[in-house]
Amino acid sequence: MAGRASRIVVVSNRVAVPDPARRAQAGGLAVAVNAALKERGGIWFGWSGTITPTPSDHPVVTTQKRMTYAVIDLKEDDYQEYYNGFANRVLWPILHYRVDLAEFAQADLSGYIRVNRNFADHLAKIIGPDDVLWIHDYHMMPLAQYLRERGHRNRIGFFLHIPMPPPDLIQALPKHGEIVGALAYYDLVGFQTEQDKENFARYLDTRGGQSSADGRSYDVGGRRVKLGAFPVAIETAAFARRARHASRSQFVKRFKESLSGRKLIVGVDRLDYSKGIPNRLEAYERFLRNAEDWHDKVAYVQITPKSRTEVPEYAEMDRFVSRKAGQINGLYSDVSWTPLRYVNRTYSRSALAGIYRAAGVAMVTPLRDGMNLVAKEFVAAQDPEDPGVLLLSQFAGAAHELSAGALIVNPHDLDGMAEALRRALEMPLPERSDRYRRMMSVLEANDIDRWAKRFLAELTDDRALPAMSLPPAAVRTVRARPDWRTGPAPRKA
Ligand SMILES: O=P(O)(O)OC[C@H]1O[C@H](O[C@H]2O[C@H](CO)[C@@H](O)[C@H](O)[C@H]2O)[C@H](O)[C@@H](O)[C@@H]1O
Ligand SMILES: O=c1ccn([C@@H]2O[C@H](COP(=O)(O)OP(=O)(O)O)[C@@H](O)[C@H]2O)c(=O)[nH]1
Questions:
Q1: Which residue, of 53, 114, 434, 445, is most buried by count of CB atoms within 10 Å of its CB?
Q2: How large a percentage of the chain has pLDDT more than 70?
Q3: Is residue 271 in contact with ligand 2, taking CB distance under 6 Å?
Q4: What family does the entry list (predicted)?
Q5: From the candidates 161, 187, 269, 447, which is the catalytic residue?
Q6: Which atom of ligand 1 is the closest one to the Cα of 27?
Q7: By alpha-carbon position, which residue is closest to atom 16 of ligand 2?
Q8: pLDDT digit string (tens) for 325-342?
C-alpha cells in the first residue's frame, strides 16, 4: 500500500488486556480475537471492564509484544443502558430469535447510541487515515456510521459473532433501521454462517438494497457494502498441544481420579439462556430414567460460569438451573455416586483442555449460538487414539461445519437428545475415530489464522497489511506483564 503503513485497529466491547491479577473469564469473542491478533499485531480498542464516575479523556494504553491495547472506562449509566440494557436485553435476545425476552426501553437505546458515539470520539484520537478498522459484534453496530459522519474514510469491516435472524425478527426491533440498518456504513460485514449472511441480505432487500450481479455486495443508500460468511475458528494445533500437556497435569490427574473410572460427559457454557442448559439437564434426566444400566457408570460435569448477572433474565436462568441440578441429584444420587456436578466456576483454557480430553462425550446443545468455540475446542483436545463424541445442536453455528462428525441433535427434542447421549456413550472406537478425523480435518483447514486472514483480505481487497507501528502519542502507556485473561466481570472504581 502506498504512503504511510496501515495498521489493524480492532474494536470490541471486550478487550483481553494482559493482566495476571485478573481471574480467567469465559467468552469466545475475546478468545478468538486474541488468538487472531497475537502474531499479527495491531491495536485493540474497547471497554476496560471498569465502571467509574470519572472516565479519563484518553484511552489507557498497554503494550505487549506486537499488540497495543487501548481501553476506556464506562460510567454506571453507560454500563446499565448500553451493555446490560440495549446490548444484552434487546439486541442479544432478538438476534438469538428470542423476541419474547426482549425488553426495549428508549433510555437504553439512547445510552447505546451515546456510548457508540463516545467510542467514535476516542477512536478518532487513535486512528490514522490509512488504518484498517475491524469492529466486532452487536455492541458496536452503528460505529462505522458515526466515524463516517466525522469524516473518516478508512476501510471499516464488521464481524457479527452472534446469529442474524430472518428479516421479520430484525423488524421486531424498534428503530432497527438506525441500528441493524447502520451496518450498511461498513465496507464489509462478516457473519458466522451463510444462513446468517442470507438473512441479512434479505433484510437489505426490505430496505431497498440492490444486490450486485455476483451477489457479494449490496448498494444501499448510496454506499456499497460487501457481505461474507467467515466462521470463527480456534488455534487448532496449539489447542491440541495444550490438551496433551494438560492431560499430564496434577489438576487433571486428580480430576480423573475423582471419576473412579466412570465415563465423563462434559458441558461448558456461560450461564446464558441461549445455551439451552435447562433442556440439556432435562434430557440427561430422561437418560438417567431410561438407562439404569448406566447408573454409577457415568458422571456429567457441567461447567457454567455466571454471566451478565445484573440482567434479570440471566438471574432467573441461574435460579432455574440450580434448582433443576439439585432435583436431578436428589432423584438419582447414591451415597457413593453423584450423577451431575454443576459448577459455577470459571476455569483456565488449559484446565478446560485437559477436562475435554478426559471426556467421553461433550454436550453442546444451544437453542441458538453464533458459533460455539467450546464445540471446536472439545474436538481439537481429543486423543486421536481414543476420541470422545460431540453431541451438537443443529442451531449452533458450529453445526454448519461439524455435521459430518458430530451427532447432530435438536435441543427441543429431549427424548432424541437422551437417545443420542446413550448412542454417544456406547459408540464403538472405529466410528468415533472416523467422526473425529472428519471434524479435525475441518478445524485444521479453517483455523483462527485463516479466519483473520480471509476477513482482512476481503476487507482490504488483498492489499498487504504490514504489522502495526508504534502506539499513538498523547496516551498513557503501561507495560504489561506476560500473561492475559479474557475479562468480563465489571470492576467498579
Ligand atoms: O462479553 P460478555 O457479555 O461477558 O459475553 C461473552 C461473549 O459472548 C458472545 O460470544 C460469541 O462469540 C463467540 C466467538 O465468535 C461465538 O462462538 C459465540 O457463539 C458467541 O455467542 C458475544 O458475542 C461476545 O461479544 C461476548 O464477549
Ligand atoms: O470456564 C470457562 C468457560 C469457558 N471458557 C472459554 O470461553 C469461550 C466460550 O466461547 P463460546 O464461543 O463457546 O461461547 P460464548 O461464551 O462466547 O457465547 C471458550 O473459548 C471457552 O474455552 C473459559 O475460558 N473458561
A1: 114
A2: 92
A3: no
A4: Belongs to the glycosyltransferase 20 family.
A5: 161
A6: 6
A7: 27
A8: 999 999 999 999 999 999
Q: Which of ligand 1's atoms lies nearest the C-alpha of 396?
A: 19
More confidently predicted of 125 and 472 = 125
* Domain 8-233+447-492 identical in fold to domain 236-445: yes
By most ligand atoms within 8 Å of CB, the mutation choice from 89, 161, 308, 364 for ligand 1 is: 161
CA distance 38 to 14: 16
Which of ligand 2's atoms lies nearest the C-alpha of 377?
A: 22
377 Cα to the center of ligand 2, angstroms? 9
From residue 63, give the alpha-carbon distance in Å to each of 12, 43, 57, 418, 470: 17, 9, 19, 49, 9
C-alpha to C-alpha distance for 363 and 375, rounded to whole angstroms: 8
Give 481's contacts (C-beta < 8 A, 6+ positions apart): 18, 19, 20
- Of ligand 2's listed atoms, the one at least distance from the Cα of 364 is 13
Q: In terms of DSSP H, where are the helices of 127-183?
A: 143-149, 167-170, 176-179
Please say whether the beta carbons of 72 and 44 come within 8 A.
Answer: no
Domain boundaries, given as residue ranges, for the chain? 8-233+447-492, 236-445
What are the pLDDT digits (tens) for 393-435?
Answer: 999 999 999 999 999 999 999 999 999 999 999 999 999 999 9
Catalytic annotation present for 187? no
Round to whole Å and give the CA distance between 253 and 233: 29
Per the CB < 8 A criterion, the answer to whether 160 and 37 are in contact is: no
In the set 108, 272, 369, 447, the catalytic residue is 369
Q: 236-445 belongs to which CATH class?
A: alpha beta
The grid cell for 185 is 456504513
C-alpha to C-alpha distances, 230 to 203, 218, 225, nearest whole angstrom: 19, 18, 16
pLDDT at 351 over 70: yes
Phi, psi of 472 (to 5 degrees): -65, 155
- Would you call 353 helix, strand, or coil by DSSP? helix
CB 161 within 8 A of CB 274: no
Q: What are phi and psi of 366, to 5 degrees?
A: -65, 155
Closest ligand by atom to 49 CA:
1
367 ligand 2 Cβ < 6 A: no
pLDDT over 70 at 1, yes or no: no
CA 186/CA 279 separation, integer angstroms: 38
CATH topology of domain 8-233+447-492: Rossmann fold (3.40.50)
Percent helix, strand, coil in the chain (nearest 5)? Answer: 45, 20, 35
